[in-house]
Design goal:
about 210 residues; about 10% strand; two-stranded antiparallel sheet; flat; mainly alpha; 2 domains; single chain
């Protein structure tokens, strides 16, 4: 069994065929010579460090909360249904060609041959489409969980309808903002992303109060 106090090593194969004994870059599994210094590696490392910090904070500040399982599941269903309806509206507003094709990278700066400004595109699912699919899966799982704990399907339907009304209001707000503020397509998309972020923040703020 490995010693928990022993610092981890990279472990990648060296040119000699032996495991690398250097320490990994912060938040990563590899040293800077074996991929730890790449932009993707650093980004992944930063993400892992942030997640570890969040988990540690939760362990430090988290306290037990009395929860009614049925109300907790219903609360999650309300928000998930609202998210599904909102994301669906965003997907329906997209050009069909942009659903599976879009920008994957943008390089800008100075290169060996002079200034660089290159945008690369490829077959990739649109962000709104990915969010929509993920939230639909989550909503389905929540509904199954609700049925398992004995929540009446009619009550689930009522919660879903109320959430859809709320999502329709957000979609209307986005359209009115574009019209009245004379937003261009990019500004309108950013506004929609802010509304999506607001949904997530409201979900985080509202859930503890409900349970």
């Amino acid at each position: 069994m490995p010693d928990p106090m022993e610092k981890p090593t990279c472990g990648a194969k060296t040119r000699a065929g032996t495991p690398c004994r250097k320490h990994p870059e912060p938040g990563q599994k590899r040293c800077r010579m074996h991929g730890g210094a790449t932009p993707l590696g650093r980004a992944a490392g930063a993400r892992r460090l942030a997640e570890a910090k969040a988990r540690k904070l939760a362990d430090t500040l988290g306290v037990p909360v009395d929860v009614d399982p049925k109300e907790a599941v219903l609360d999650a269903i309300r928000w998930s249904a609202g998210h599904v309806a909102f994301f669906r509206a965003q997907v329906q507003a997209l050009d069909p060609d942009s659903l599976i094709w879009g920008k994957t990278s943008h390089r800008c700066g100075e290169g060996p041959e002079g200034p660089i400004d290159v945008t690369e595109e490829s077959a990739v699912a649109n962000m709104w489409l990915r969010l929509y699919d993920q939230e639909r899966d989550r909503f389905s799982a929540l509904c199954l969980a609700a049925i398992k704990v004995g929540i009446d399907e009619r009550r689930i339907k009522v919660e879903e309808q109320q959430a859809q009304i709320f999502a329709q209001g957000l979609t209307w707000l986005q359209g009115e903002a574009k019209l009245r503020l004379d937003l261009n397509d990019v500004e309108s998309r950013v506004f929609g992303e802010l509304l999506s972020e607001m949904l997530g923040r409201l979900d985080d703020l509202e859930s503890p109060a409900r349970v």
